[in-house]
Amino acid sequence: MPPLLRPAAERFHSQLDWLDSRHSFSFSSHYDPAWMGFGPLRVINDDVIAAGKGFGMHPHRDMEIITVMIEGELHHRDSMGHAEVLRAGEVQRMSAGTGVVHSEVNGGAAPCRLLQIWIEPATAGIAPAYEQKPFALQQGWTALIDPEAAGEAMAIHRPVRLWRAQVEAGTQLPWPASGSCASWIQIINGGLAAPQPLCRGDGLGLSAGEAPPSLEAGAEGVDLLLFELR
Fold first, then answer.
1. Residue 122 near residue 157, CB atoms below 8 Å
2. Which of 13, 37, 125, 223 could bridge 189 with an S-S bond, Cβ 3.0-4.6 Å?
3. CA distance 128 to 219
């Protein structure tokens, strides 16, 4: 099966006076049965939130929610008693489980940008949980999510792996996943020259069993996420 391309320009778009959000998959009032997710990956929202604005208290349940902070800061409060500030370079994972209520507000003086990701848990009805960590990106891949929480990576309630890489133009990136699982590439900034030209906001899905492609950063370098999905 050929790779599944999700061009940035074809994503769903929500815009308010304080929010500019691009949705890779169906979300909120945006619905397309052809774009309900990719395996257990249900949401990738690329959000820019104005200073002093954000999402008030709202509920979630039975979803693994990962927030990758790209620029600025986000103030988080939840019904588990957490009151945290998530800054650029940090990653938050929240297991909504039996139910959690939280708010996300940009408490900084400038707009912030984040990627919020939703992944279906392997089991419903688990206890809610929260964790966040800073990640210093190394040359090559940095593991953010890992089933065994190897190294500094965090584990969620699904055997999913997530890496981030931020490299210069022309850099070759060896494929870190096994190739036996489905994978999704999401471009944060810059772009790839190979396996095909991809730019900011583009997504590319690969089915399980496909030969892992060679990745090469484009002329601007690239900042990207890679998911291994089961």
1. yes
2. 223
3. 43
Per-residue pLDDT tens over the stretch 59-97: 999 999 999 999 999 999 999 999 999 999 999 999 999
Task: Supply the pLDDT for residue 48.
Answer: 98
Task: List the beta bridge partners of residue 67.
Answer: 92, 116
Phi then psi dihedrals of residue 73, to 5 deg: -145, 155
Q: Is 67 exposed, middle or buried (0-12, 13-18, 19+ CB in 10 A)?
A: buried
Is-contact 147 160, C-beta < 8 A? yes
Does 209 score more than 90 pLDDT? no
Distance of alpha carbon 19 from alpha carbon 221, whole angstroms: 27
Amino acid making up residue 95:
S
Q: How many CA atoms lie within 13 A of 82 on its CB side?
A: 21
The mean per-residue pLDDT over the stretch 34-61 comes to: 98
Residue 224, pLDDT > 80, answer yes
- For residues 170 and 45, give the distance between their C-alpha atoms in angstroms, rounded to a whole number: 28
Q: What are phi and psi of 8, to 5 degrees?
A: -55, -40
Question: Do 58 and 102 touch, CB atoms closer than 8 A?
Answer: yes
Say if strands 64-71 and 90-95 run parallel, antiparallel, or are unpaired: antiparallel
pTM as predicted: 0.97
The type of residue at 99 is: G
Which residues, in sequence order, are bridge partners of residue 117? 44, 66
